[in-house]
Fold this sequence. Notes:
By secondary structure, the protein is an alpha/beta fold. It has helices spanning 12-25, 39-43, 55-65, 78-83, 85-106, 139-158, 184-195, 213-225, 246-256, 268-275, 284-290, 298-311, and strands at residues 4-7, 30-34, 47-49, 69-72, 109-115, 162-167, 169-171, 197-200, 208-212, 237-238, 242-244, 261-264. The protein has a seven-stranded parallel sheet, sandwiched between helices. It has a three-stranded mixed sheet with strand order 7-9-11. Helix 5 (85-106) packs parallel to helix 6. The two termini are 34 Å apart. Bound molecules: serine. Serine binds next to loops.
Amino acid sequence: MKRALVIGAGGQVGTELVVALRARYGQENVLATDLRPDAAATLGGPFEPLDCTDGEAVLAAVRRFRPHTVFHLAALLSVTGEERPRLAYRVNLGGLLNVLEAARAEDSAVFFASTIASFGPSIPLDLVPQDAAQRPTTMYGITKAAGEMICDYYHLRYRVDTRGLRFPGLISHVAEPGGGTTDYAVEVFQAAVARGAYTCPLRADTQLDMMYMPDAVRAAIELMQADPSRLTHRNACNIAAMQFTPRMLAAEIARHLPHFRMEYRVDPLRQAIADSWPRRIDDSVAREEWGWRPEYDIAAMTAEMVAHLRQRGSASPGIPNRRPTVPR
Length: 328
Ligand code: SER
């Protein structure tokens, strides 16, 4: 991979992935694209506005830039997906199909961001294996499980080099998530540093897989660089780093901010979504096939999050529950 095109670059993953790719391959070799033209200001470097639901525009961008790899990150997350299920279907699956068609035409590899949400409550949710049955019950999860299969299809049928990861909830101090169930694990840090208190929308004992963004970005790049002959699972690999409940995270934050207080006001939609997801996924296949290893556990992640947000002065009153910009 020498040239990369990132779709959804202004989102939580894209913002940091673009920086990492540019550090590795050079500014001019990474084209950032996003539905929101204002993402250009944050991302810097080569940027084009791009709506992934516009197939002709996706093909034109891939044709012009000729990337070795397209990182496709644009999607509606779980909460927004439940509020607007048909839009989630159109963006998450329609957008992916446009990307795969463009990649097929222009011989690019494709990275697809899948998720722990591609699993559902009909299986045992502790240490969910790579090949567990996928019967998600959210529209977000359904589009991601189907997306994994469509990526496999393009590999089997057209030899497109598709690869993907099942990301856990992602935690970052750089860019906000938007419309996800795991967003609480980012919001809590902002609120803790700014106000010393946070009202959590999930029950105290809700355990989910989580990951610090530097690990997630490195995983995406390492997967795309992995020796393809070693990959028996392309779409998509379980990766894990840490598992915690809101109560455990609050205790960890309190080690740095002793006055921090977590309160709970359970949001029924978010709670139902979280209860349908794995408490932990088994990432042994990723470890064996391409050497995946996380670097951050809950303690290391919390220390960095608090330090970065304190340094920034955290004048912000806390992350608002940002609604992602979505096509009409
Ligand atoms: N972070 C996503 C969400 O909460 C899960 O992949 O929707």
